[in-house]
Write a structure and sequence with these properties.
Rossmann fold; binds guanosine-5'-triphosphate; binds magnesium ion; 15 helices; alpha/beta; 381 residues
């Protein structure tokens, strides 16, 4: 985006590079339990400008949104590219589409590399198509810039759907910021939703904390395990078990019984707060076996969510998190980015490290300084 929120460097760089990505902030700054800083008054936010009269650009966006809603796949593809790179135009398009979203079921599919996610997603898509439902597929690869091969592999596995306008497939990759990717994925899903796709399948690798963001976008999450993963299953933390609403033992042609027993033993110990008992579904994705059962399990969970407003409560939680994240990004862009250049970070960190300055005073001074002014200089010792 113009304010550069989306594409960014990995969160582990520690210090956010100027003007690129608020999600590159040190983890503490991303933490929702951040203490409010009350020791000084925040500088006033920029004055809101009077809304501009409708322009040719606004008319273009409205027409674009209309085309997306009308099922124009090329308009949708261009819209998703815009969302990936971000920017005010992307926001304008998403704003126009937002009121028309909210009807789709978001189905997250996660699991270790090579577990068979893409093969399964392609089969699930075929099953939904069989029932006349429209499908959107987002293959999200948060791991690295070097995994385009995998995405290419996904494309090949999903090739059979390419001739079907009822299935829209999109790969999304990042060269860094996971938070950024999660936000872009969420926006892409809401665009597909507004475009009338009723089942949106989101494939992402891994079950690490970093991917949890992406997984949490989904209404229902499937975790794919494969036989021979017993040790990994033992190592799964209770929190990760909470993420999966349905466990899928794919590659069941290699014998699913042992893994199923181990999984049952672990699941027997963990009780979810909402009372849902995640089912375990064995599948052989390459032979389309177990897909109908999986589809039924997904349906059962969506029904469970629909009952007693559970789904609405969950979506509210998700929007709250998203709004919080958005506000954090914008506060950073408004107050920090205009005051610190890329080269300032290193120098200020050096000042702190050498004890010339303390970080509390420095933070206060930075926020008090007028935007664009040179940041506080380190005091000579
Ligand atoms: N034997 C067997 N092989 C399977 C099954 N499902 C998928 N495979 C194979 O497993 C390999 C990986 O499948 P993918 O669908 O690409 O797995 P993925 O999880 O999407 O992989 P990444 O996206 O690279 O993480 C392919 O060679 C598939 O043909 C299955 O049920 N049984
Ligand atoms: Mg894949």
């Amino acid at each position: 985006m113009a304010n550069g929120l989306r594409r960014c460097t990995p969160p582990d760089v520690g210090i956010a590079p100027y003007g690129r990505c608020a999600r590159g902030l040190p983890p503490a700054a991303q933490c929702s339990t951040l203490r409010p800083y009350t020791a000084f008054a925040m500088p006033p936010p920029p004055q809101p400008t009077t809304p501009a009269p409708p322009t040719a650009d606004a008319a273009k966006i409205a027409a674009w949104a209309e085309a997306i809603r009308g099922g124009d796949s090329r308009a949708l593809a261009r819209g998703l590219s815009l969302v990936e790179s971000g920017g005010p135009q992307a926001e304008a398009l998403l704003k126009a589409l937002f009121p028309h979203s909210g009807a789709a079921a978001l189905i997250g599919v996660t699991g270790a590399p090579g577990a068979g996610k893409s093969t399964l997603v392609a089969e699930l898509a075929a099953a939904y198509r069989h029932w006349g439902e429209t499908v959107g597929i987002l293959a999200v690869d948060p791991s690295s810039p070097f995994t385009h091969g995998a995405i290419l592999g996904d494309r090949i596995r999903m090739q059979r759907h390419h001739a079907d306008p009822g299935v829209f497939i999109r790969s999304m990759a990042t060269r860094g910021c996971l938070g950024g990717l999660a936000a872009a994925t969420s926006e892409a899903a809401w665009m597909l939703d507004a475009a009338g796709r009723r089942r949106i399948l989101i494939e992402t690798v891994g079950v690490g904390q970093d991917e949890v963001d992406i997984v949490q976008l989904a209404d229902v999450t499937l975790l794919l395990l494969v036989p021979g993963m017993g040790d990994e299953v033992q190592a799964l933390k209770a929190g990760v078990m909470e993420i999966a609403d349905i466990f899928v033992i794919n590659k069941a042609d290699r014998g699913a019984e042992r893994l199923e027993q181990e999984l049952r033993a672990i699941l027997g110990l963990a009780h979810r707060e909402d009372g849902w008992r995640p089912p375990i579904i064995p599948t052989v994705a390459t032979e389309a076996k177990g897909i109908a059962e999986l589809q039924a399990a997904i349906g059962a969970y969506l029904d469970f969510l629909a009952a007693e407003g559970r789904g609405a409560a969950r979506r509210r939680r998700r929007w709250r998190q998203q709004l919080e994240r958005m506000l954090r990004d914008r506060a950073y862009q408004t107050w920090v980015a205009p005051r610190l250049g890329a080269e300032d970070w290193e120098r200020l960190a050096g000042d702190i490290e050498s004890r010339r300055r303390d970080p509390f005073t420095l933070a206060e001074e930075i926020l008090r300084s007028p935007a664009g002014a040179p940041p506080p200089a380190g005091r000579a010792t």
